[in-house]
Amino acid sequence: MIEPTAQSWTAMLEEELKLQRERHLWRELRPLDGTQGPEIEWAGRRVVNFSSNDYLGLAAEPVLIEVMQEAVGRYGVGAGASRLISGNQSPHRQLDEALADFKKTEAALSYSCGFSTAVGTIPALVGTGDVILMDKLCHACLVDGARLSGATLRIFPHNEVGRLEEQLRWARAKFPHGRLLILTESVFSMDGDWAPLRELVAVKEKFGAWLLVDEAHGVGVLGPGGRGLVEELGLSDAVEIQMGTLGKALGVAGGYIAGSRALVDLLINRSRSFIFSTAPPPAQAAAAAAAVRWVQTPDGITRLEALTSNRRQWSDLNDAETMAPSAIIPIAVGGEGRAVEMASAFLQEGLFVPAVRFPTVPKGKARLRLTLTARHTAEHLRAVADLLKIRRGDGFFDKLF
Ligand SMILES: *Cc1c(COP(=O)(O)O)cnc(C)c1O
Asked: Is the model more confident about 145 or about 31?
């Protein structure tokens, strides 16, 4: 038997890292000082920030900072245990109530983050003998939750409801007694486009399947009062499981499921990332609950309107015929090396527009991913649009995917 030595261990890791660099897939953490906002101190420089999912600019909102500070004073810094043991402090309960009220569902359950929400929820609902049907572009946490469940997994091409229907027909025949669960996002995180939710609802009803919609990039951006795309399309009663995060447009941290009382009770009893994990700090829950309530105030509505107006302005600046469908603007580049090069050209001009590469998106489909927020100014938007025009003129984007 060969004993692994300390050296072979390090050599193995270094070999992996070398490959990562050669493929232009190297990632590293860079220091960021100060608060989140449309302008940030990044690696020691002040840059315009087009990288954050803080769509409504709530991550450093004074009202929420005050709520969180006050909650730390009242409830301390940590929850001490899982909510089922002794960690269920009143801010957690109030957050669940605020979420159900906002989403107009019977009940809601909050988690530490969106990722743990997905990996805790999917396996609580389906398992061996059941089938999950998932859009090809679903987020990593939905993929991991699906794998963890032990259900048979089928992936349908992005937004192709016809293919989904074929898979549902196959699944119904093969697993006549199995549960069928469809997973999608309302707004896709790397493309910014919408799922055809009405068609998905129609097809799932035909086959008696359930539908989980991840609104991570829909809530706070779309729908009346920022309630999301499901509400915008009037489908709240038709979608069994509405999922979301409290860390993006809502500015704080956490994740949630909104739906029926029975769904939430089942999760409290079965969802492993909820049961076997310390509750998030009560101050986090208090700030998140305050954020959920704030978006429904006149100030919140005004902020949402500012985001919508920036989406419209972005489209005008880029001569697009219709308004950007969400706050996520993908700029197709293709090659990984090229995307990185393009991002650094932006950075030289003081504009932080990150390159997104494999495995976040497929190989050869690298892109710049620009996010608009309510607090970007007209000058911020113009600066990026101008630079894009110049690089288009240079032929930099001639090899689009
Ligand atoms: C970010 C994201 C999540 C995870 O949410 P966190 O609260 O950041 O863990 C889930 N789904 C989608 C589509 C996301 O973009």
From this structure: 145
Provide the edge-to-edge strand list for the sheet that holds 351-352. Answer: 32-33, 39-42, 45-49, 351-352
Structure tokens at 297: 């105030």
What is the sign, positive or negative, of the torsion defined by CA atoms of 76, 79, 80, 86?
A: positive
Measured between alpha carbons, how far is 138 from 134 in angstroms, rounded to an integer? 7
> Would you please indicate which residues are annotated as catalytic (active-site) residues?
53, 139, 185, 189, 214, 217, 248
Helix and strand tally (H, E) in the chain? 14, 14
**Cα–Cα distance between 226 and 215 in angstroms, integer?**
11
Q: For ligand 1, say whether the CB of 113 is within 6 Å of any of its atoms.
A: yes
- The answer to whether the predicted template modeling score (pTM) of the entire model surpasses 0.90 is yes
Residue 71 has a pLDDT of 98
pLDDT tens-digit profile of 317-342? 998 889 999 999 999 988 888 998 99
**What is the rounded distance in angstroms from the CA atom of residue 364 to the CA atom of residue 112?**
34
pLDDT attached to residue 1: 59
Tokens read off for 199: 């068609």
Calculate what percentage of the chain has a pLDDT beyond 90.
Answer: 85
223 lines ligand 1 (CB under 6 A): no
Distance from C-alpha of 108 to C-alpha of 241, rounded to nearest angstrom: 10
